[in-house]
């Protein structure tokens, strides 16, 4: 009888540990994907920056995108450190999809389209963040929930608002004034983020 009870308890314990490891692994994998998306966003912002730090003459927009690139790299680095502190294990740090420049960015020719692509870039990371947050909610991992909310969520909300505000300013004026408002925004961005051409290119 004792042996039977011991066997049942051992089996239940093994099932619980296996289930717990599976949940932990799903969160670890999602955090790994979040790192991949963050580094992808970094390179895509840098690709956008290269469009305007040269001959197109909008260094303020170039500096903005370079700044966003730096921020996404910094956040990806923080996620890696957080994973290490939590002892999250994954088979690789970058997922099999890898880091790539999205094809739509190659075709960007003007600042308005660049803002649209920058928002899409931000949304991809935001979606990955929400996926990881939902997994953390499902497994009652309050530590991960809090980390994602306070460290990353606020950043993506802020970027969305910044880019949307600039889009609206351009869209709200008549066509013959769009070039002027774009120049004014570029000057504001240049004053805020500095001239990154000498630092990056």
From TrEMBL:
Entry keyword annotation includes Zinc-finger: no
Record-level GO BP terms: intracellular iron ion homeostasis; iron ion transport
Residue ranges of every copy of the Ferritin-like diiron domain listed in the record: 21-174
PROSITE patterns in the cross-refs: FERRITIN_LIKE
UniProt key word Iron: yes
Family: Belongs to the ferritin family.
Protein known as: Ferritin
Naturally occurring in which organism (per UniProt): Didymodactylos carnosus
Taxon lineage: Eukaryota, Metazoa, Spiralia, Gnathifera, Rotifera
